[in-house]
TrEMBL record:
UniProt family annotation: Belongs to the complex I subunit 2 family.
Keywords assigned by UniProt, alphabetized: Electron transport, Membrane, Mitochondrion, Mitochondrion inner membrane, NAD, Respiratory chain, Translocase, Transmembrane, Transmembrane helix, Transport, Ubiquinone
Transmembrane segments: 12-31, 43-63, 83-102, 139-158, 165-183, 189-209
InterPro entries membership: Complex_I_Subunit_2, NADH_UbQ_OxRdtase_chain2, ND/Mrp_TM
Function: Core subunit of the mitochondrial membrane respiratory chain NADH dehydrogenase (Complex I) which catalyzes electron transfer from NADH through the respiratory chain, using ubiquinone as an electron acceptor. Essential for the catalytic activity and assembly of complex I.
One Pfam family hit: Proton_antipo_M
Gene Ontology molecular function: NADH dehydrogenase (ubiquinone) activity
High-level lineage: Eukaryota, Metazoa, Chordata, Craniata, Vertebrata
Top-level enzyme category: translocase
Record-listed E.C. numbers: 7.1.1.2
Recorded name of the encoding gene: ND2
GO biological process terms on file: mitochondrial electron transport, NADH to ubiquinone
Designated name of the protein: NADH-ubiquinone oxidoreductase chain 2
Gene Ontology cellular component terms for the protein in this record: mitochondrial inner membrane
Residue ranges occupied by any NADH:quinone oxidoreductase/Mrp antiporter transmembrane domain in the UniProt entry: 10-233
């Protein structure tokens, strides 16, 4: 919580970067609380990806400060640092083509930790991306957004594991948000809030039903018809 609040309330790139780092380091113990090789692998992949994205954010913000003399987030950013910052934040969010870590990491986590990864961990980088909407490159955002929607849609088709389906669903949702960011940041924010609400509902439902794959979900109707119906409504 501290990392996200630090990033949301910061006006300086270094403070925002520190908040993102706190966020990354805080969730790793949650990821490795079950001593399973898959959980350790997921934590390692997550840490390396997030560290690379954080390094790129620091590099881009330093270049921007060198070019403009400003460390403030809400000022106009030079084109080259803006592109680097957009790519770094998309990498943190798991937007295609920087999405490869997300399905594998989510698959290695428990549903409780996966819920945190899919909702809370997305807030800080998405908030920074929304603040950058005036400076981002429209063509880059459209390409990344449309690519994410295609990858998210096709990637989730043949999956049997619920966590992987939710990961690809997250990629597709975030793709639409990124695609419309430059055109309408208000719509992006509304879409993000709806995504958080739907994802929260689905994860809580699957935790209650104790389901981890499609087969278990198909047989859960007899155990809890209400929750199964709720999960179908959330998917709509």
């Amino acid at each position: 919580a501290l990392g996200t609040i630090t990033t949301l309330s910061s006006y300086h790139w270094i403070l925002a970067w520190i908040g993102l780092e706190i966020n990354t380091l805080a969730i790793i113990p949650l990821m490795t609380k079950t001593p399973h090789p898959r959980a350790i692998e997921a934590a390692t992949k997550y840490f390396l990806t997030q560290a690379a994205a954080s390094a790129l954010i620091l590099f881009a913000s330093t270049i921007n400060a060198w070019l403009t003399g400003e460390w403030a987030i809400n000022t106009q950013i030079s084109p080259a640092p803006s592109i680097l910052l957009s790519i770094a934040l998309c990498m943190k969010l798991g937007i295609a083509p920087f999405h490869f870590w997300l399905p594998e990491v989510l698959q290695g986590l428990t549903l409780q930790t996966g819920l945190v990864m899919s909702t809370w961990q997305k807030i800080a980088p998405m908030a920074l991306l929304i603040q950058l909407y005036q400076s981002v490159n429209l063509s880059l955002m459209l390409i990344l957004g449309l690519l994410s929607t295609v990858v998210g849609g096709w990637g989730g088709i043949n999956q049997t594991q619920i966590r992987k389906v939710l990961a690809f669903s997250s990629i597709a949702h975030l793709g639409w948000m990124v695609a419309i960011l430059k055109i309408s940041p208000e719509l992006t924010l509304m879409n993000f809030l709806l995504y958080i609400l739907m994802t929260l509902t689905l994860f809580m439902t699957f935790m209650s039903l104790c389901t981890k794959n499609i087969y278990e979900l198909s047989t859960a109707w007899s155990k809890s018809p209400t929750l199964s119906a709720l999960s179908l409504l959330s998917l709509l």
